[in-house]
Design goal:
The protein has helices at about 10-30, 35-40, 45-60, 75-90, 105-115, 120-130, 145-155, 160. With about 180 residues, the chain is an all-alpha fold. It starts with 10 loop residues before the first helix and ends in a 19-residue tail after the last helix.
Length: about 180
Amino acid sequence: MRYAQGGGLDAAARARREQVRMAAVEFIAAGESDEQVAARFRVTKMSVNRWRRAFARGGTAALTSEGAGGNRPLLTEDQRRELVELIEQGPAAHGHLDQRWTLARIRELIRVRFAVDYRSSGGLHEMLTRLGVSWQVPTRRAVERNEEAIAAWREETWPDIRGRPRNAARTSASKTKPARG
C-alpha cells in the first residue's frame, strides 16, 4: 500500500521510530561512530549521520517526530464524519434526482457545506477511499424494483442471450488468414 492510499506510518509507528532515534543519540553523544550505531540499531549509516547532524544543530528536540508527512487535510476530522453522514443520506436528499453520487456532486456538496474547494478529483477520490465511502453505488435498492420481473427475465430471456447464436459463422481475428471450416 502506498503512502497516498493511507499506508503511511501511524502514530504508534512514528513513536517507535522516535524512540529508536532517541536511544541512538545517547550512543552518538557517547562518541560511537556512525557504523557502530547503525549496526547496533540495524539502520543505515546515512540515517545515523542525519540524526547526528540534527542532534548537533538542535539537540533531542530536532529528533522528535513532526507528525504525519504530506499536506494537511482540507477537512477536519469532524467535517469528514459529517461528510460521510451527508453522503449516506443519498443524492436525493441533496437535490439530485437519481441515486448516484459522482465526484463532481460530492465536490459541490463539500464546497457548499464546508466552504472548501477540492480542485483535484484525485485528492477527493483518495480522501473518499480512505473514508471507505463508495460514491458510485446506491446505498438502497430502487423503490420501483420488481423482483418477480427480474426472476422471470433471468429464467426466460437470459439463457437465450447467453447461448451462442445458431447461425453464427466461424470467423477469424486475423486479417490475412480466413477462418477454417
